[in-house]
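Quarterly update from the structural biology core.
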Amino acid sequence: MTRSSLPVAAVTAAAAALLLAACGGGSNSSDKISSSDSPTGSASATATTASPTQAAGPDAPKFAIPSDIKVNFDGFDSSDPTKKAALKDATYAALAVIEFEAKDYTKEPANFKRFWTDEHGAEFADSIIAQNKDGSVITGTYNYYKPVVKTLSTGNLAVQYCEDQRKGYSKDAKTGKVNVTTPSLNDFNLWTLSMTKTNGEWVAYDHTWQHGAKQCQIS
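Predicted structure, tokenized:
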């Protein structure tokens, strides 16, 4: 499934083996970790919205994820404390996108503002809002795997991972009709989140997305 020209991806708290939901999105790019080393500004944590879905941990955000959306994460953990924290917060950033795409929001939810920052975060939010205007939202099952964390020259991090959305679909928010698509290479995507630490959390200040990534294809 590819939702318009800027589909949206997602990830959740790996340490908690959470089963939730997602769909891919961002700007198309190569498979290299090549985002800029530095964000254009600083981010500030904001209050999260209350919802039935609570990620693991006392300070973890809450996400309003519909029950018809599910996601599996594999390998989003590390023995290195810094990488472990970045992977956890990268999942929160992606879950914030899922929450955004699961309902026809007309403005950024609090979780999105918390984990997506700077001008690229604002541009990403605008693209999601624009997509929501067509009346479609996400549904189905999404899988995330093969995460890799790289240290950038400034000390920021890049978190790269694969996405399988063969069973992820778009649906009409009003009628509930699901647009079921035939699985193909286009359902495999490669994501890279550029992250910086702000207020004790790793937040995404930029991202790239490669559609139809052969290196992510699985049977």
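The chain has three helices and eight strands.
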